[in-house]
User: Which sequence fits this backbone?
């Protein structure tokens, strides 16, 4: 049986969240780790945008967005109950939308200040303060972002918080976001995230 083919890149937060949902669903896929400086022609043929993740289904259907891939996987199987019900649907959508727009905007500038020299690096970090404080308060209240269990919101956002924390790990460890720190540490220690972050085995 032909399996869906996932083009991915280990450290890309969009690809990480797609892999998280696929792993949580238990749906089997083949993975192709992309070398960004030498993108495979087969991937570019089905997705000229040239970014990961890209999932090609056995019938030829191509899913080019990480959230679409996440929902596809969880619609196939959702044993961890990640898909949001009506009570948390609007909150989930709003959190992910803010992450993918405002937070990602400032994260890119914080991570790559040399590309944005118009402001000091710390100024870009400071722009995320309101968002980080809100995430921290939500986790302190619920345990996770929108519920007392991990859901789509957590899986979609944690790769970006992981990336943010890694820019200056010492600053993040001393920051005033204890619930967020604990939440991230829990995710980083989870077998699920560790599995999807494992380095691919080189082909023989």
Assistant:
């Amino acid at each position: 049986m032909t399996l869906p083919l996932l083009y991915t890149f280990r450290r890309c937060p969009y690809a990480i969240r797609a892999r998280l949902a696929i792993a949580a669903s238990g749906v089997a896929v083949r993975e192709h780790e992309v070398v960004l400086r030498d993108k495979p022609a087969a991937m570019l043929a089905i997705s000229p945008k040239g970014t990961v993740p890209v999932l090609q289904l056995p019938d030829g259907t191509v899913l080019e967005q990480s959230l679409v891939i996440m929902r596809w996987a969880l619609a196939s199987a959702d044993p961890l109950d990640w898909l949001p019900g009506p009570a948390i649907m609007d909150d989930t959508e709003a959190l992910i939308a803010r992450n993918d727009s405002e937070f990602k905007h400032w994260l890119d500038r914080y991570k790559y200040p040399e590309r944005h020299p118009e402001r000091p690096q710390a100024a870009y970090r400071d722009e995320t303060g309101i968002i980080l404080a809100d995430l921290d308060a939500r986790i302190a209240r619920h345990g996770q972002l929108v519920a007392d269990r991990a859901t789509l919101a957590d899986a979609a956002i944690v790769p970006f918080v992981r990336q943010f924390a890694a820019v200056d790990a010492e600053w993040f460890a001393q920051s005033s976001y204890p619930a967020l720190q604990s939440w991230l540490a829990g995710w980083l220690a989870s077998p699920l995230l560790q599995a999807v972050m494992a380095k691919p085995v080189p082909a023989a």
Q: What stands out?
A: The mean pLDDT is 96.
